[in-house]
């Protein structure tokens, strides 16, 4: 079982509804729980030595090293050379262990629960039912309107035939790993594909987020668009069809990039 799945199902954060199989030996000895405590201690206190972790958790250094070996193998933590400030003492600097980006992401899933709770509070405060749904939709539109303002400048600076690509690049900078390409088949237009969605787990419960996003795409591109698939509904990619027109490029384009500029939910 991977270290990421362990962290996501440790009672602190939730990651979907998957059932994770755990070796019987780990269930009996609490190995998984202890590894989660080791990773959590690094998250709370920053890069730590084996001695630091052992003292904080009340474990032997040998036990800490064993758990760290597993966490390193699962790409949850990584070993680094400890930074030394001031005069360096004799001998090699102590090795410290820090969370990797993957390890930190596993804990960041707890924000999904916070965001979903906030959306439910909005709905309940408005009276629930249709009023609650309308309040959530209003919030989703306001959120996307604010986000759209950061995209508008990029689109207005691009020629009309390149605005879908410009939108894909702007979305990529916000963590959506977006691409723009000509739509396959007989239809004349483009597909805007988002290969990652920072709010997918919340959008599963509140589709108003996806609907507001689609409305914003239409306004930014100045044409009707059609959402074909969403990650929130279980599809592999969020796909939006853009008919040939004001926002469409004339040739295949790609705006794929890394998700370094993450947009926290």
Automatic annotation (TrEMBL):
It comes from the Bacteria. Residues 245-265 have a biased composition (Low complexity). Residues 33-78 form the HTH arsR-type domain. Gene3D superfamilies: Winged helix-like DNA-binding domain superfamily/Winged helix DNA-binding domain. Residues 244-265 are annotated as: Disordered. InterPro entries: ArsR-like_HTH, Carb_Metab_HTH_regulators, HTH_ArsR_DNA-bd_dom, WH-like_DNA-bd_sf, WH_DNA-bd_sf. This is ArsR family transcriptional regulator. It comes from Streptomyces goshikiensis.
């Amino acid at each position: 079982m991977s270290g990421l799945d362990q962290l996501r199902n440790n009672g602190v954060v939730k990651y979907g509804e998957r059932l994770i199989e755990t070796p019987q030996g780990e269930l009996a000895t609490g190995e998984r729980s202890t590894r989660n405590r080791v990773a959590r201690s690094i998250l709370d206190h920053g890069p730590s030595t084996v001695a630091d972790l052992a003292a904080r958790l009340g474990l032997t250094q040998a036990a800490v090293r064993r758990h760290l070996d597993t966490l390193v193998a699962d790409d949850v933590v990584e070993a680094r050379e400890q930074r030394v400030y001031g005069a360096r003492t004799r001998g090699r600097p102590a090795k410290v262990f820090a969370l990797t980006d993957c390890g930190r992401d596993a804990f960041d899933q707890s924000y999904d629960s916070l965001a979903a709770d906030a959306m439910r509070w909005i709905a309940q405060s408005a009276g629930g039912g249709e009023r609650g749904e309308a309040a959530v939709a209003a919030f989703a539109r306001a959120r996307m309107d604010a986000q759209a303002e950061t995209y508008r400048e990029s689109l207005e600076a691009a020629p009309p035939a390149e605005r879908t690509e410009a939108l894909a690049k702007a979305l990529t900078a916000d963590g959506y790993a977006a691409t723009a390409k000509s739509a396959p088949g007989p239809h004349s237009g483009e597909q805007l594909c988002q290969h990652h969605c920072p709010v997918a787990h919340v959008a599963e419960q509140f589709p108003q987020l996806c609907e507001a996003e689609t409305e914003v795409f239409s306004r930014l591109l100045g044409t009707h668009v059609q959402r074909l698939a969403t990650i929130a509904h279980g599809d592999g990619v969020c796909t939006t069809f853009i008919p040939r027109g004001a926002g469409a490029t004339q040739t295949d384009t790609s705006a794929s990039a890394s998700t370094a500029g993450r947009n926290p939910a």
